Amino acid sequence: MAMHDTGRELGGERPGETRITPRLIDSLYTEAMLLADEARTYFDEAARHERSTLDPFVRVSFACESLRVTTRIMHIVAWLLTQRAVESGEIAPGSERRPERRLGHAAESDPNIVANLPPEARRLVTASTDLYARVQRLDEDSVSEAPASSPARALMSRLERDLIWQRPS
Fold it and tell me: What DSSP line would sit under 135-157, residue for residue?
């Protein structure tokens, strides 16, 4: 399964709909944490030499883009932790739809500025933008009209959660 196919693997009730399951949350969380580590390593350590060779304007853009990457990842991780809290029962179901628990806004990157950055910086900007867009679709889908609840769906959801996270009922 490719990283960008995560949502389709767990398709929802209707075509194009994605169910937010513990497996999906864990997969996205792992992807976000790996990306966060790559970004930290690159922007804090590996990019020092590259930064010193950049034009002053591009150097400022480089710093701004590193902050945008970090902000996107922080919003993604916070949203995923909220989803985990709902699944584990720490937060009441439905409260993840409250505005303060939804995915935070992250500024978009200017493609013209990103084009002037070193290749690894461009890759990280693109990866964080892609991951943010996928999580944003999940967040938007979660607030759209939910299908009517059924006892069978509730039982399947509980079983899936308990089996994947190996929690006793």
Answer: HHHHHHHHHSPPPPP-HHHHHHH
Q: What is the pLDDT of residue 151?
A: 73
Q: Which of 4-8, 27-31, 50-54 has the highest mean pLDDT?
A: 27-31
Selection from 113, 166, 102 nearest residue 140 by Cα: 102
Per-residue tokens: 6: 């995560």
pTM (two decimals) = 0.74
Confidence of residue 138 (pLDDT cuts 50, 70, 90): very high
Residue-wise over 55-91: b if at least 16 C-beta within 10 A, else e?
eeebeebbeebbebbbbbbebbbebbebbbebbeeeb
Q: For residue 12, is it left (φ>0), alpha (ψ between -120 and 50) or beta?
A: beta
Burial of 131: CB neighbours in 10 Å, binned 0-12, 13-18, 19+: buried
From residue 135, how far is each of 32, 83, 106, 107, 139 by CA, in Å?
10, 11, 12, 15, 6
pLDDT, position 46: 78
For the beta carbon of residue 31, count every other beta carbon within 10 angstroms: 20
